[in-house]
Amino acid sequence: MTFDIQNKTVLVTGANRGIGKAILEEALQRGAAKVYAAVRNLDSATALVTQHGDRVVPVRLDLDDAASITAAAGTASDVDVVVNNAGVMRTVSALASNAIETLQFEIDANVYGLIRVAQAFAPVLKSNGGGAFVQLNSIASIKTFPQFATYCASKAASYSITQGLRESLKDQGTAVVSVHPGPIKTDMGDAAGFEDVAESPTLVATAIFDAIAEGHFHAWPDSLATQIGGAYESFANNVVEADMEEGVV
């Protein structure tokens, strides 16, 4: 399914900085009529409103707070595209003493948060004609790096949920995009030690809206992601995106 965001309404979680801010700005550049900046702290979106005026509307949304997500869906009842960008990451190996605690923290935001957003906004997208739902996953969704194994596990789970959403939302006409960046220049990337190899967040924003426009499920934005995506392409085409009867394993 393809979708044109011209004159449409977009919501971006974690829109106040990094990749989220780049996504918001790309949506406006491509002609979106309005972008909801979904953030935990409304004051963090003040600069975006100052810069872009009433085309940016702040709305409170915290992935850990189901009530805030439900309320945001009520406020953004005119939304056509939801981009779930927000997430968390800690640098913890599977053998660390706090690995289970860390995994619980990451799962709550990166997986349960995704499910909460999808459940709240799927009916809204349906009522507005289908639109698109975008999930920021990672190359870590398909390749585990031992120094942050718990994060990789949470992103593998979010990718699995995203695949399910692709099928679940198909009948209501909602396109789903799974985005898999590599190291990106953000606060999270810097904290993980990617300063020397990280690439621009604008690559992610561009890849997202290209995928929506062209009807692609997977998006591989940067150099490392493109390399991994190329190696993964056959499996993605023949297994992940293939129509299979239930019960086939």
From TrEMBL:
Pfam families: adh_short. SUPFAM superfamilies: NAD(P)-binding Rossmann-fold domains (SSF51735). The keyword Oxidoreductase applies. It comes from the Bacteria. InterPro entries: KR_dom, NAD(P)-bd_dom_sf, Sc_DH/Rdtase_CS, SDR_fam. Residues 8-187 form the Ketoreductase domain. Signal peptide: none annotated. The keyword Ion transport does not apply. Keywords: Oxidoreductase. Belongs to the short-chain dehydrogenases/reductases (SDR) family. This is NADP-dependent 3-hydroxy acid dehydrogenase YdfG.
